[in-house]
């Protein structure tokens, strides 16, 4: 193996993607973690489910958690 580990993400993390969503937004919130990653656009609210491999290729930066909301 080349030592590549899965990206460390958790539910509630905010991520910036490489390409914009058709609505113009780059930032997404992680809503599901597993073999597939569920994300929600923070601009329009659209939910998308991506295989982990595609998600890891498309994510540019993990911005951190949104700790301001109640669990």
């Amino acid at each position: 193996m080349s030592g590549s580990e899965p990206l460390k993400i958790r539910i509630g993390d905010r991520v910036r993607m490489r390409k914009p969503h058709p609505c113009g937004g780059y930032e997404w919130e992680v809503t599901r973690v597993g073999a597939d990653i569920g994300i929600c656009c923070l601009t329009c609210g659209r939910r998308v489910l991506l295989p982990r491999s595609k998600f890891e290729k498309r994510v540019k930066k993990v911005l951190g958690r949104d700790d301001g909301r109640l669990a």
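The CA atoms of residues 29 and 48 lie 10 Å apart. The two ends are 38 Å apart (CA to CA).
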